[in-house]
Amino acid sequence: MYAIVAVSLNFVISYKNKLPWNIPLDAEFFYSMIRGQNVIIGRKSFENIEIHPENNYYIFSKNKNYEILSNEFNNIKIFHDFQEINSIKNNKEIWICGGRQIYDEFLFSCSTLYLTIIKKFFMGDVFFDKNYENFFYLERNIFENEDIKILIFKNKRLFNISL
User: Fold this and answer.
1) Those residues with Cβ within 8 angstroms of residue 118's Cβ, 6 or more apart along the chain or in another chain
2) For residue 8, is it left (φ>0), alpha (ψ between -120 and 50) or beta?
3) Which fold has domain 2-144?
4) Could you report the per-residue pLDDT of 42-57, keeping only the tens digit for each?
5) What distance in Å separates the CA atoms of residue 104 and residue 3, rounded to the nearest whole number?
6) What is the C-alpha to C-alpha distance for residues 33 and 130, in angstroms, rounded to an integer?
7) What is the spatial distance between Cα 144 and Cα 117, in angstroms, rounded to a whole number?
8) Domain-by-domain residue ranges, the chain?
C-alpha cells in the first residue's frame, strides 16, 4: 500500500475542500502514479479530482446515503467502514490519496509515502500530520524545481529501521 500527498511548507493539504494551489506538474505526478490502480479516497477529496476509467475508486463517506451521480465506467465503490478496504481483491496496487481522515487511518500501514512539497506557504483548514517523520525515513529526492520537491519515504517499521 502506498500513500501520495502534496503539502505546502506549512503542511496545508486543503482549503475549503480544494487544493489551494494549481501546479500542473504536481497534478501530472499525482495522476501518473495512481493511473490504473486502486484509489482510496475520502468523499470530499474524490469530489475534487479527475476520474480516470482505468482506476478503481473506493470512496469513504460517513454519510450512508451518499451516492455517486455518474459511474459510467463502473469503477467507483462507496465504503462506510475502514475495514471494507480488506474486501479489495485484485492485482492492482492500493494508493491512499486523502483527505486527512483517510491519511490518519491508513498512512502508517503504507510501505511508501510519496510526498510533494509545494515550496510556498498557503492558507488552509486541513493539514497533513507532521508526525509522519517519526515513522518514515527519506529514501530519496526524485525531483526538484523552484515550485515543488518530490520525495519518497519508506516506512521504518516495515523495513526494520529503528523508530
Assistant:
1) 6, 7, 8, 9, 21, 23, 26, 147, 148
2) beta
3) Dihydrofolate Reductase, subunit A (3.40.430)
4) 999 999 999 999 999 9
5) 11
6) 23
7) 9
8) 2-144
Residue 99: is the preceding peptide bond cis (ω within 30°)? yes
pTM: 0.95
Please tell me the predicted confidence (pLDDT) of residue 72: 83
Nearest to 45, CA basis, from 32, 61, 31: 61
Residue matched to cell numbers 501546479: 23
pLDDT at site 163: 58
Residues of the chain predicted below pLDDT 50: none
- The angle subtended at Cα 96 by Cα 91 and Cα 120, nearest 5°, is 140
DSSP 92-130: SPEEE---HHHHHHHGGG-SEEEEEEESS----SEE--G
DSSP code per residue over 7-66 = EETT-EEEBTTB-S---HHHHHHHHHHHTTSEEEEEHHHHTTS---TTSEEEEE-S-TT-
User: What Cα–Cα distance (Å) separates residue 150 from each residue in 63, 91, 99, 142?
Assistant: 34, 26, 19, 6
